[in-house]
Design brief:
Elements (H helix, E strand, L loop, with lengths): L5 H12 L3 E2 L2 E2 L6 H16 L3 E4 L5 E4 L5 E8 L12 H16 L6 E8 L10 H6 L5 H6 L8 H7 L15 E9 L4 H5 L3 E7 L1 E10 L3 E2 L11 H19 L5 E10 L5 E2 L2 E10 L2 H20 L4 E6 L7 E2 L2 H14 L4 E6 L4 H5 L5 E6 L15 H24 L1
This protein binds zinc ion.
Zinc ion (ZN) binds next to loops.
Length: 411
């Protein structure tokens, strides 16, 4: 049986935390100096654990078990939000490291191994989940180099800047993998509220991003009578209010939506805004429902546009992420492992946050487990998880990994 070493696990998590540590949190955005440094540290740790480890051409740390033709892939991401928590992503990466070591110490199973990955830029500092997308073969070298990052710079220039120019990318050999397992902090309040310690993920919600554009007339805020204004700002406020009610009426129980950003041009107290944009994001686990929400928004915006002298248009952004259902068998392995290590203390649940597993699940049978986030806080310096839960999560993950590999070896 794989028995992980809790002290070693916690100590490695602390070591990774030291890269970019600020107070209780971590600032280790993708491709930053400290991110690249932490990746080199991780390569050394994985190599010391007996794996063939390196940083690939897009910044993924990929560590392969040698002398085996089949492997379970385990991983997560080690980049953070601009002001991130210390466990978001890091937890699943260090679980991979610890489980590999423990597996090796337990003697291993002939012909079957564990590969570990730390994916690049899950948090989307430059290009959301570029690492796992690259590994899953979503683009050619030329497409990657040519792709703009969020700031509009070519990814090729960024990769050269961090020393990855000409370094080959690691692309998934699908025949090698038994599946993909990822552990993550829950980043929400449900486990804590239920008094439970492990979540087995059933599905990961899809995300639709929109920008609503308002075109009015810019003018003087003191001399323009109210009746003569074409105020893009007020139109934006009213529309956001309307759409919030529309979404509340059509939402399913777990649908969430956010008006995360609103901008007025030129954005001064004495100017009637000529232009405005509102950003809206909707998340739900049902793709068909998300499509129907999109159609409902389109119809409503069209209607608003007809009754207003401010021009209004809805832009559906291309960075939408599709909802994914986790593989049944992988869920079963996670459930059995949770029940054996934490009887009665786990539940099945959907993930409201996006994860690399969402990308990997398009190619491999994938499973995910969650550990509780204290106070449901994440993407914040205050993010934390009880030590006991961190250790338990790794034990559950190790048990699931062992069962998957054992069954594969017996087949
Ligand atoms: Zn994460």
């Amino acid at each position: 049986m794989i028995e992980i070493d809790p002290e070693r696990l916690l100590s490695d998590l602390e070591s990774l935390r030291s890269f970019g540590s600020v107070g209780n949190g971590v600032v280790r955005t993708a491709f930053s100096d400290v991110d690249m440094k932490s990746r080199r540290w991780l390569v050394d740790k994985l190599a010391a654990a007996g794996l063939q480890a390196s940083i690939d051409g897009v910044g993924n740390v990929i560590a392969r078990s040698e002398y085996c033709s089949r492997a379970l892939l385990v991983g997560s991401h080690s980049d953070t939000q601009p002001t991130g928590g210390w466990l978001d992503g890091a937890l699943g990466v260090i679980y991979g490291l610890e489980i590999t070591r423990a597996y090796r110490e337990a003697g291993g199973i002939p012909g079957v191994g564990i590969d570990v990955a730390s994916w690049m830029d899950e948090e989307g500092t430059h290009f959301s989940s570029i690492g796992s997308r690259s590994f899953c073969g979503e683009f050619t070298d030329a497409e990657l180099m040519d792709s703009p990052n969020i700031a509009g710079e070519r990814m090729g220039a960024l990769l050269r800047h961090v020393g990855l120019g000409g370094v080959p990318r690691s692309i998934m050999d699908q025949d090698r993998y038994l599946g993909y397992l990822e552990a993550h902090i829950e980043q929400g309040p449900f486990l804590e509220q239920a008094g439970l310690r492990i979540g087995v993920v059933t599905s990961i919600v899809g995300v639709r991003n929109f920008v609503i554009h308002f075109h009015g007339s810019q003018n003087h805020a003191g001399t323009t009578p109210m009746a003569l204004r074409r105020d893009a700002g007020v139109a934006a406020i009213h529309a956001a209010h309307d759409l919030d009610h529309l979404l509340a009426r059509s939402a399913r129980a777990a649908t969430v939506w956010t008006f995360g950003d609103i901008r007025f041009q030129p954005g001064a107290v004495s100017i009637v805004p000529g232009e405005a944009q509102v950003r809206l994001q909707v998340r739900d686990a049902d793709e068909e429902f998300l499509d129907s929400v999109t159609r409902g928004l389109e119809a409503h915006i069209e209607e608003l546009g007809r009754s207003s002298d401010v021009g209004i248009e809805l832009e559906s952004l291309h960075d939408s992420v599709h909802a994914i259902t986790m593989d049944d068998r992988m869920q079963r392995y996670c459930v059995d492992a949770a029940e054996s290590r934490a009887p009665g203390k786990w539940m099945s649940m959907q993930s409201g946050a996006a994860h690399d597993a969402q990308i990997l699940a398009t190619k491999l049978p994938s499973g995910m487990i969650f550990v509780p986030s204290i106070g449901g806080i994440s993407h914040d310096f205050a993010e934390d998880t009880a030590e006991d839960d961190i250790v338990l999560g790794c034990q559950v993950m190790a048990a699931a990994a062992e069962a998957i590999m054992q069954d594969a070896a017996n087949r």
